[in-house]
Every structure is written in C-alpha cells, then in structure tokens.
Design a protein that fits this description.
By secondary structure, the protein is an alpha+beta fold. The chain has helices at residues 2-21, 33-36, 54-66, 85-89, 110-119, 142-148, 274-284, and strands spanning 123-130, 135-137, 154-169, 174-191, 197-219, 223-240, 251-268, 286-300, 308-322.
Length: 323
C-alpha cells in the first residue's frame, strides 16, 4: 500500500512540474503551434521577401518589368539602345569594379550602332600630303631655275595638318570651321647672276598657316564632298649651304599672305563595313575613317623680296572623325 501511494505521489509531482515548465508529456494530445497560426490574406509565401507581403512582391515584380534584361542593374529611365552623342562617349567602356563578381551580358546590333557613330561626329583631324605643283615667281626667275628645273633639284611638296569642328550638321549639308598648319621643303643648286651654276645648295622651307570655313555634303554613308576657303599666311625660310652657320646671309626668313581654298572627295572606309566601324569606335572612339583625295589652291605674296607662290596642286591623305 505504501509503495502504491509513493508511486502515485511521484506521478502527481511530475505532472505538476511538467505543466509549469511547458514540457510535452507522453500520451498528452498536443496542438501543433504552427497549425494554430492563421495566415493573413496579405501574406504570401516567398523565400525572397522578408515580410512576405503582397505589396512587396508586387513592387519587385513591377521593378523587374522596367529593367532591361541585357544590362546589369538597368532601370526604366535608362535609354536603350544608346542614341545620343553624350551617351556614345562612354559606350564600350566599363568602370572598374562596377560589376563586381557578376557577369554582364549586352546584346549589340553592330549595324545599328555603326549608323549612330557615323552621324554623331563633332570634330575631325585631316592629314594630307600635297605635291609641289605651284608656281614660283621671283626676280630673274631664280626660284624656278633653282628648285623647279635646276641641277639636283628637289620639290618635296608639303604635309598639312587640319582640325575641323562642325558648326551644324543636317541630313544633306554640314558646315565647319577649319584651322591648319603645313610643312614643305624644296632645294636645288644656286644660280649666279650671269646664269652659271653654283656649287651651293639653296633650300626653301615653307610653313603655311590656314584659317577657313567650309561645307560638306555626305553622300549616303560611303562618300563625302567638301570644300573650305579662307585667309592663309606663309613663313618662307631660305637657306644656303656655302655660308657658315654664324655668317650673315646664311639664312633669310620672310612672311607672306593670301587666300587658300581646298576641295576634297572622301571615301568613308568605316561606312563600308559595320563590323569594322564598330570595332574601330569601341577601341579608339573614332567614328569615321576616311580616305582623302584633295585639290589645293593658294596664292602668297607681300614677301620682303618680290616673290609670289601660287597655283593649284593635288594631294591625298586621311581623315579621323571623333565625337
């Protein structure tokens, strides 16, 4: 009897202790706490949203619709494809660290982009070589007899460098202002007053300086026709080999001026291949690469000596256009 009483007492004490501490008792029917929770109507099970709110899910889905699937981190106010000159300036360049460890995939239609590159140029650089086919008028025709048809004469022509900036561009006509520098060289054996040939070599260095305004007509995307006209000046240096460097008369520098004009036919190498145009632009920011065939006229006078340099000559070169 005592044993049964002790066992019953222990059971009562154990039951009381378990109830006070929240412990589960074998044989007791327990309600699942999770099943007691009633899901709110605004709660949606999503592993990506912290509060599982319908509003938050809708916001994420709406934002995803505004994003461009090809640009990492794009938003709806981002213009795509790129169309303005300011946006093209940064095209093809990714800021270091901007993508982190993620991969960025961008689908590009090179043909469409190359059309934009061809149209958005704002400035260009021209490098040309002109044959010396100009006429030299001087006292006793000494310059022509020296560098034109004299003994061991050289008419080296001259190189020119021009920078053109577009004032406006339309579908059929572009206008630009131009500034340029040149360098030319000619030489030959000197002539005495009596016409006999000297052993001294006469050298003529020419430095033309141009400032003008021009028009350009684009013919589709393959060709361009352009013309420029304006004032020009020339620094002419004469040097003879039979005097020492410190001897008076060794060198003489004169300054003359007059008009100049240039007409050019240009073949656009970039316009003939969209893939070449795209690769060239993304690697160097050159929008157009053109091959030039040019004709130049100038007429310089007002030098210290009675000298005139005038006439027309032909040349060839390249043009690089940039944004």
């Amino acid at each position: 009897m005592k044993i049964k009483f002790i066992i019953l007492l222990c059971f009562i004490i154990n039951l009381s202790y378990a109830d006070s501490t929240g412990m589960t008792i074998a044989g007791q029917e327990i309600e699942d706490e999770i099943s007691k929770m009633e899901l709110d109507e605004d709660v949606v099970a999503s592993p990506y949203i912290i509060n599982n709110s319908k509003n938050e899910l809708e916001q994420v889905e709406a934002k995803g619709k505004d994003q461009n699937p090809f640009v990492y981190g794009s938003v709806k106010d981002q213009n795509y494809p790129i169309s303005t000159r300011s946006e093209l300036k940064g095209f093809g360049q990714v800021e270091p660290g901007s993508l982190g460890n993620s991969e960025n995939y961008l689908e590009i239609n090179s043909k469409e982009y190359s059309k934009k590159f061809l149209k958005e140029s704002s400035t260009c650089i021209e490098l040309n070589y002109f044959k010396d086919g100009f006429d030299y008028t001087s006292k006793n025709d000494v310059i022509n007899r020296t560098v034109g048809n004299g003994y061991k004469h050289v008419k080296g022509g001259f190189l020119s460098f021009h920078r053109n900036s577009f004032l406006f561009k339309t579908f059929l006509l572009n206008a630009f202002w131009s500034s340029g520098l040149g360098f030319g060289y000619s030489s030959g054996r000197g002539i005495f007053v009596d016409g006999s040939r000297s052993d001294a070599t006469m050298r003529f260095w020419q430095f033309p300086i141009d400032l003008g305004i021009g028009l350009e007509i684009p013919i589709y995307q393959w060709f361009k026709v352009s013309a420029a006209v304006g004032p020009s000046a020339m620094i002419l240096n004469q040097n003879r080999s039979d005097f020492s460097n410190d001897e008076k008369g060794k060198s003489k520098t004169q300054f003359g001026y007059g008009p100049y004009a240039i007409a050019a036919f240009k073949v656009n190498l970039s316009g003939m291949s969209s893939s070449f145009a795209y690769d060239l632009f993304t690697s160097s920011q050159i929008t157009n690469l053109l091959l030039n065939f040019e004709m130049r006229y100038h007429s310089y006078s007002k030098f210290l000596d009675p000298i005139e340099i005038s006439g027309t000559s032909i040349g060839a070169g390249v043009t690089f256009e940039f944004l």
